[in-house]
């Protein structure tokens, strides 16, 4: 129910974006396709789609992608992930999904992912910039 409504709303608000069922989540920025899987947890699917839509917003904003070292590259990738979570969350209002329950669940999922990115970091220098983009 929630998911079907979200798909209809995305088509209306973001006509350039195509949603495609897949066995993975992802965003193809060249073709503006959001890949999603219909799992048993509908709310998790909704939240994951919002994150992928967040990638679309980051990609179409004039974000600076310039990096000069592999470390900066690693930091940039994670920074973009964090921004996609932040943008995705700001869309809860846009899609009338801003109930305390959904907001709380989004926060939990977002924190889980962001913590996993930070844990995976070999170089801890970008942790500070991650938290800066997280606070926005
Ligand atoms: Zn992502």
Q: Count of helical segments?
A: 5
Bound small-molecule species: zinc ion
Strand order of the largest sheet: 1-3-2
Determine the fraction of residues in helical runs and give it as a percent range.
55-70%
Q: Give, in order, the helices and strands.
A: HEEEHHHH
**Shape type:** globular
Number of strands: 3
Give a short account of the largest sheet.
3 strands, mixed
Question: Would you tell me the overall average pLDDT?
Answer: 90
Uncertain stretches of 5 or more adjacent residues: none
Distance between the termini: 31 Å
Strand content: 5-15%
Radius of gyration equals 15 Å
Report what the structure shows.
There is one protein chain. The protein has helices at 2-13, 42-60, 70-94, 100-120, 127-135, and strands at 18-21, 26-28, 33-36. It is mainly α. It has a three-stranded mixed sheet, with helices on one face. It starts with a helix and ends with a helix. The model has no long low-confidence stretch (mean pLDDT 90). The structure holds zinc ion (ZN). The site of zinc ion has 4 residues, from α2 and α3. Zinc ion binds at residues 51, 55, 81, 84.
